[in-house]
Amino acid sequence: MSNMKRINEIFSDYESRGNINTAIVESVVLSKKTKTLELKLSSDKYIDISEFDYLNKFIRKRFALEDSIIAVKYAEGTDKKPIEQEIENIVFFVAEKYPALKAVLNNSEYEVVDNAISFNFKVAVSGFLKSMDYDKKIHNAIKNLYGTGYKINFVDKVSGEELLRIAQAKPASGMPVIPKEVKAAPVNNYPQQPRDAAIVKPDGKAEADGKKGDSSLILGRNAKIKEPVIKITDITPDEGRIAIEGEISNIEAKELKSGKTLVSFDLYDGSSSMTCKAFLKPGEDGEVLSRLKGAKGIRIAGNAGYSKFSGEVEMIANTIVETEGVKKIKRMDRAEVKRVELHMHSQMSQMDAMTSATDLIKRAMSWGMTSIALTDHGVVQAFPEAHKLL
Asked: How does pLDDT run across 291-302, given as a tens digit for each residue?
């Protein structure tokens, strides 16, 4: 025990007056791959849930981590607050990471019976929450932050009419139906893009429905996409209808036997990229393809799901709207003494680079560099192209 230190001894710059300050650190595990710190504490004094939140934020900022998992083990006989008083604080602590869970908590009530906690929802969400393992996440959080494990039950207490509607809407695959309350909630903190302004007709009336008169609409009936824009990295195999936006590449078109055209492309939104597809009616493929190739960026809405054909999660889009694209910050070299790059390959080096000598030299000039070396190999060299810039 003499080798073990307390929180205030390890983090001397952590400003807190709570009981967590004197908690003993039993073990620390750092995962470089996930950038997560696991911290196990022991204490003979009860620690408020808010103190775990403050320490979590401090650790993440101090060590530039994605997350920290803090668990406490209380000494026998420690005077704790009743679990009924702490459930709400713990659950909302968990929900900060999972906005879909946060969206339905206002429609729930809880009750504690022995070693089990039941969450009774006024909307049909238990199937969805269980499919996302939120019951396990809440169980782990209570065990970590309160020091005692409880079984978590999700129960739907809805009307008969609501249950009938759910049964009729349930897909053949047997996957749980995602309620509107959950779908409407953004699943991450990705900033929402402003909606396109309503179109003003010549007579001064606003065309709020955003139909074909909207010049930004490439495909679909309505340019007003209601679904929240989410990151590609947050899309799950059974996501359903969503909206994403970004830049497109690798556009391909294939005419089907039905007469329709299948257009596929890759969309990159800054977090990742995914394959998107759309089915075009005869006669509209020419205009749609032309606009896709010329668009700086697009916002699309449709159904995302697992494709047995490709073995990946893909999106079938039925609405495509042109946007200004992803804003990029131009990289600059602000060094007072400029370096000279002596090892540089252009696209003339086979399988080694994609940038032309022209672009490389122009970038070096914009950064104020006085010289640059081109060291191509394998095929031909880029000196003729570089010479033209002299």
From this structure: 999 888 999 999
Express each pLDDT in 166-212 by its tens digit. 555 555 444 445 555 555 554 444 344 444 444 344 444 444 444 44
For the entire predicted model, the pTM comes to 0.44
Q: Give the max Cα distance, the chain.
A: 83
Which position has the token pair 């908590």?
105
Q: Is the Cβ–Cβ distance between 371 and 345 less than 8 Å?
A: no
Over its C-alpha atoms, the chain yields an Rg (Å, rounded) of: 28
The answer to whether 39 and 69 have CB atoms below 8 angstroms apart is yes
DSSP 331: P
**DSSP for residue 347:** T
| 72-109 exposure pattern, b = at least 16 Cβ within 10 A, e = fewer | bebeeeeeeeeeeebbebbbebbbeebebbbbbbeebe
CA distance 77 to 374: 73
CB 149 within 8 Å of CB 139: yes
